[in-house]
User: What shape does this take?
Amino acid sequence: MQNHAERLDGLGTTIFTEMTALAERTGSINLGQGFPDSDGPRPVVDAAVAALQSGANQYAPLPGVPALREAVLRHQRERYGLNPEDVLITFGATEAIASALLGLCNPGDAAILIEPYYDSYGACIAFAGAYKRVVTLRPPDFRLDPEELRAAAERSGGRARVLMWNSPHNPTGRVFTREEMEAVARVCVDYDLICVSDEVYEHLVFDGEHVPIAALPGMAERTLTISSLGKSFSFTGWKIGWCSGPARLVGSVRSVKQFLTFAGGTPLQHAAAAALALPDVHLQRLRAELRANRDTLADAIAAAGWRPLLPAGTYFINADVGAEATRFCAELPARCGVVAIPTSVFYDDKAAGATLVRFAFCKRPEVIAEAAGRLARMTDGA
Ligand SMILES: Cc1ncc(COP(=O)(O)O)c(C=O)c1O
Assistant: This one.
């Protein structure tokens, strides 16, 4: 029997490592992996330096630095009208997701996933000994079919424990509608599911607005809301994340987290508290820049003869290139000096995303302009 490492080898992050190496080898612009190429707001860096110099360098308390815990609670209250009972600071959203799935899923339980999905979800469900029930979003709209979702819960025959939710959604860029979210809430209530909601792109919405699923009727008491500093403030390397919600759910995450990392990044937790207290103009500026990048890349994708699938949020855009995307992505650097990722890596049903390519647009405008120029000049089709 394969162990976890053997089963996971070749999945998920390997493609990002390979594509990043390919970008370096070919001198290409790397729009494969989603990290910004410039720092976040200066006052946040200054707060980190101040914390480092003022002796905030030992273990943080397990629940997190009080200033950041308070800042997260205030953020949830003032932006969304939520009043979570508890909050826990984690090593990025990644650790919150892992601890939640390990803490909440028993061996043999089912966890409902919406695909394409962020790769850590599947891996952590496997670690927990649980299994996936996958609902598929299909291009070009990536709309959630409420009947498919209900059928997935029904098929689990009472073993469904968790529904993993992610809006704004990586890799499609969808910001789900109120109607779709109400359908999710109804299924969670009807099947008594815990909703683990990954909202790391909450502030990167260009069309519409972010609604935390915990704000829907019946959901606050069954939702664990996860977010982090990385995407909203362009500090992905700091890995400061958090989760909030009912005390019993946050407690489950804490029980696992204490044996994974216990605590981490004390000075950066102080800086994250400063980030959450910044005036909104920082987020507005980031959104405006990302929206312009999105539009530049969408135009270039269309000019190259492919179909851009315009995202309402996140910093990813998909193109339907009308050809097998894995081979397309392997050849793209040599053809035009741009690296992208085949979206099928996020699908279990590989056929559903077979012709989709994901580009990250969280780079400086001049880098996006250069990448757009290279793509638009490609004339030899797919
Ligand atoms: C959907 C989603 N969730 C979680 C993460 C990881 O967040 P963090 O860097 O805070 O661990 C990412 C990063 O790409 C993501 O896209």
Q: What stands out?
A: The longest strand covers residues 160-166. The mean pLDDT is 95. Residues 34, 92-94, 118, 166, 170, 198, 200, 228, 230, 236, 239, 241 surround pyridoxal-5'-phosphate (CB under 6 Å). Residues 29 and 338 are 5 Å apart (CA to CA).
